[in-house]
Amino acid sequence: MIIDKIIAIFSESSRTFEEQEKGEEVVLLLRRHPFVALLPVGMLGLFALVPIFIILIFYSYIAAGYLNLFLFLASVYYIAIWLITFYYLMMYTLNTVIVTDRRVIERNQLGFFSREVSELHVYRIQDITVSTKGIIPTMLHYGDVIVQTAGTEQRFIFQDLPKPENVKGAIMKVVSMANAGVKPAVDK
């Protein structure tokens, strides 16, 4: 029922997700490093100052008869800034990597109405590489986690994850426990 799904939004925790199998435990729920989201939002904050500088510099011309036009154009500009900011924050929130005791699932929101979900079973994972490139990622401790699987499947690249070495360790622990037939302990 639709009402049950709406209520479930408020009652489900970060330990559950839509396609979760029965008995499957969430080990990690990951998003990109917050810096990756805050950088474009901060730049948009600077762009939001443009109409203020324009009115300060050209006040005498604008007040002479173009004030209503300027206010209209500034309003349209701020709506565009708000929509772009909302887009970046939505992409940050909806792009997730979920590590469970059975699978690694990547949810990639490609646009407002486009999503891609990829998953791989932990028993297929053969190699995990961490890649941190640049001074800012090194200082803020974020980078890419590259997971190589068995067979002809491509590599899975999870970009800009915080503390990628810890993520690698957690995934390797899940893989080794799955190969040994032991269920990993979940931090609650």
From TrEMBL:
<feature type="transmembrane region" description="Helical">
    <location>
        <begin position="35"/>
        <end position="59"/>
    </location>
</feature>
<keyword id="KW-1133">Transmembrane helix</keyword>
<keyword id="KW-0472">Membrane</keyword>
<feature type="transmembrane region" description="Helical">
    <location>
        <begin position="65"/>
        <end position="89"/>
    </location>
</feature>
<feature type="domain" description="YdbS-like PH">
    <location>
        <begin position="97"/>
        <end position="168"/>
    </location>
</feature>
<protein>
    <recommendedName>
        <fullName>YdbS-like PH domain-containing protein</fullName>
    </recommendedName>
</protein>
<keyword id="KW-0812">Transmembrane</keyword>
<dbReference type="InterPro" id="IPR005182">
    <property type="entry name" value="YdbS-like_PH"/>
</dbReference>
<dbReference type="Pfam" id="PF03703">
    <property type="entry name" value="bPH_2"/>
</dbReference>
